[in-house]
Amino acid sequence: MISLAGRDILHSWGKFVFTGIGLGLLIGVTLVMAGVYRGMVDDGKVLLDNSGADLWVVQKNTLGPYAESSSLYDDLYRSVLAMPGVAQAANVTYLTMQVQNNNRDVRAMIVGIMPGEVGQPGWPPQLVAGRQITRSHYEAVADIATGFKLGDTVDIRRNRYTVVGLTRRMVSSAGDPMVFIPLKDAQEAQFLKDNDAILQQRRRTTENPAFNRPGVPGLLDAVIASQSTNNYVNAILVRIKPGYLSHDVGANIVRWQRLQVYDRVQMEAILIGKLIATSAKQIGMFLVILAVVSATIVAFIIYTLTMDKIREIAVLKLLGTRNRTIASMIMQQAIALGVIGFAVGKITATFAAPLFPKYVLLVPSDSLVGFFAVLVICVLASLIAIRMALKVDPAEAIGG
Amino acid sequence: MSGKGIRIEDLKKRYGTGDAAVDALNGVDMQVAPGEVVGLIGPSGSGKSTLLKCLGAVIEPSSGLMALGDEVIYHNGWKVRDLRALRRDKIGFVFQAPYLIPFLDVTDNVALLPMLAGIPNDEARRRAVELLTALDVQHRARAMPSRLSGGEQQRVAIARGLVNRPPIILADEPTAALDSERALAVIRILEDMASQFETAIIVVTHDEKIIPTFKRTYHIRDGITYEEAGEGRLLNSAGKLT
Ligand SMILES: Nc1ncnc2c1ncn2[C@@H]1O[C@H](COP(=O)(O)OP(=O)(O)OP(=O)(O)O)[C@@H](O)[C@H]1O
Ligand SMILES: [Mg+2]
Questions:
Q1: How far is CA A51 from the centre of its chain?
Q2: Is A321 near chain B, with CB under 8 Å?
Q3: Inter-helix orientation angle A219-227/A195-207, to 10°
């Protein structure tokens, strides 16, 4: 027996290839969509991995530092460091902002890291070029996704930094590349106001009789000084000593320091379950819509292809072709269309993924699920056409 | 000679019900012996196609009897379960229009039927080419149907109708698209088929050129058949002259 479906496809291959490409682009979009979600999750994981921390110590009752804002005094890390089981503890600040570089501005996450040695939590674990920050001011290490090069100068607020090192895959949970600068600079950047605002604030403080008391000469200066320095950080990154359980160390810090502590698992749950949950649902909605649209298109194409063959189907039936043979011909064509579409979609997605501004991660298992989903959709979509084909009256072939 | 041939008795077919009912066949009586080619002639709307459809098991008659040889296939209801297999194995169709499958080449259009019946592809194609040669279209054997002339298409369709060597062949205006030389050739092939394989063949036609070639002709008027008794006289089913 010959393959009727195959012969029909060969005969009208143009129609098949073009509809297959159309369907493929749609499938490509769907795969990229899934890749966007995977990319978001991966960004979150990479963020946690690269922070090098086992525990995140944040402001009490917050989901900080990534999902909510959190602030802690910058001297608390010393007492955390003294807790049993803590190997390293380092302050860190996070601030997402536009960074200027030669009239170009890049959205980046400014990470303030404490001076120390390589491998300290918060530091970029490896560089692709240059060196780590060695001075305590005005040096920066940037992710290559910022587009900065070694020796570039970048403006963060009022200060100018020199890029001394480049790193890669260091991104915020929103996918923005990171720029590392010394902690003190970062604290200032978070807090620093423009000159007008500082003057304004000084004037107000001076005019406030509660601060400007004739009988207490040092008070006004002290108040102004405290208003214009920032001794807060967003989190303390903790690495624990081998042999200790992160849960026990965390519980101790909570009990004695009255701070919030999250371990890796909890942090991942916050990032994926809370921070990107809405985006994930959004993407999920799109996937549903794309699946419905693809199904409709396949159903419509297969329906019209079958409609075009109604007379031949009547003849086939008259000649004694079994319903099974006719149904499988239509279903095979639907599946062939799905396979062409999937191949085109997979290729499109693979080539398109790197062009997206945010990280798109194509996971093989998603492709596999997508492939089977396409097949199921094609089979279901062909049922309408099959139903119609089986209703065709063989008497039609004889005519008048 | 038994086991083949066609016998139809008092066959009736009514389309629709109530006021819209049309009595297309009003008691058809016909006998075609194995090896015989009979003509069926009648004005438009007289019930020719309806009769072929009933005999071809694609529509159900309302009452009466149809038998292929000894096998009664219809007697006030179908007597065979698998009408599809009946059509595939016992009946060859040749239509007014060729209705070839556009995505199969000429050989496979003809070979499809034996393939559907489970005959290996090579054997099926060999039979197809044999028939195409007999019908003088073997030079177009690998062409697609859309590249053929109307007459060539019709000859391919005839080959398809004959390829399974069915015991009966139903042909509806098979020569309408052919010139008289080819039309007569087709009838000659049908007659050869009939005598060689004891096939019973009914040919519906308006074609003046071929009517004289039939040894026996039935006329149908308002759903009733009459057999021609020569010199323009017709016999009804009771054998009376009308
Ligand atoms: N499906 C149908 N439903 C209702 N009436 C029908 C149907 N098919 C045919 N008829 C009617 O039955 C009668 C016989 O039709 P049939 O097609 O058998 O004629 P015919 O002899 O083949 O005519 P022609 O030479 O024009 O092909 C006609 O009156 C026709 O209108
Ligand atoms: Mg007719």
A1: 16
A2: yes
A3: 150
Q: How far is CA A339 from CA A19, A116, A219, A297, B147, in A?
A: 12, 56, 78, 14, 31
Q: Is the minimum CB–CB distance between A312 and chain B shorter than 8 Å?
A: yes
pLDDT at B82 over 50: yes
The answer on pLDDT for B234 being more than 80 is no
Query: Identity (one letter) of the amino acid at A297?
Result: I
Give the pLDDT confidence score for residue B239 in this predicted structure: 66
- For chain A, domain boundaries: 2-44+277-399, 60-192+230-258
- Report the pLDDT value the prediction gives residue A198, as an integer from 0 to 100: 78
- For residues A180 and A204, the answer to whether their CB atoms sit within 8 Å is no
In percent, the amount of chain B with pLDDT more than 90 equals: 43
Question: What are the residue ranges in chain A where pLDDT is below 70?
Answer: 400
Report pTM: 0.76
CA A354-A358-A362 angle, 5° bins: 55
Structural contact between residues B55 and B8, judged by C-beta atoms closer than 8 angstroms = yes
pLDDT of residue A130: 92
Q: Which of B49, B96, B108 sits opposite A2 (nearest CB)?
A: B108
B77 to chain A, minimum CA–CA distance in Å?
18
Q: Indicate the pairing of strand B168-172 with strand B6-15.
A: unpaired
Cα of B202 from ligand 2 centre, angstroms: 13
Compute, in angstroms, the gap from residue B240 CA to the centroid of ligand 1: 27
Residue B102 has its nearest CB partner, among A11, A320, A393, at: A11
State if residue B205 touches ligand 1 by the CB under 6 angstroms criterion: no
A325 touches chain B (CB under 8 A): yes
Atom 16 of ligand 1, nearest CA residue: B47
pLDDT (0 to 100) of residue B238 = 65
Comparing C-alpha atoms, which of B157, B180, B179 is closest to residue B94?
A: B157
Q: How near does any CA of chain B get to the CA of A295, in Å?
A: 26
What domains are there in chain B, each with its CATH number? 6-235 (3.40.50.300)
Q: Does A316 touch chain B (CB under 8 A)?
A: yes
pLDDT value of residue B2: 41
Residues of B in contact with A400 (CB under 8 A): 49, 96
Nearest CA in chain A to B58: A395
User: Would you state the structure tokens that stand for residue A183, as one six-digit string?
Assistant: 């902690």
DSSP at A241:
P
pLDDT band at residue B54 using 50, 70 and 90 as cut-offs = very high
B231 close to B241: Cβ distance less than 8 angstroms: no
Helices (H), chain B: 48-55, 83-90, 106-116, 121-134, 150-162, 180-197
Burial of A109 (0-12, 13-18, 19+ CB in 10 A): buried
Residues 6+ apart with CB under 8 A from B18: none
- Among A11, A398, A399, the residue with its CB nearest the CB of B103 is A11
pLDDT for res B231:
66
CA distance A308 to chain B (A): 11
pLDDT value at position B1? Answer: 37
Contact A98, A106 (CB under 8 A): yes
Residue B37 scores a pLDDT above 90: yes
Within chain A, strands assigned E span 55-58, 72-73, 86-101, 104-113, 129-130, 139-143, 153-156, 159-167, 178-182, 232-233, 235-240, 260-263
Strands B216-221 and B37-41: parallel
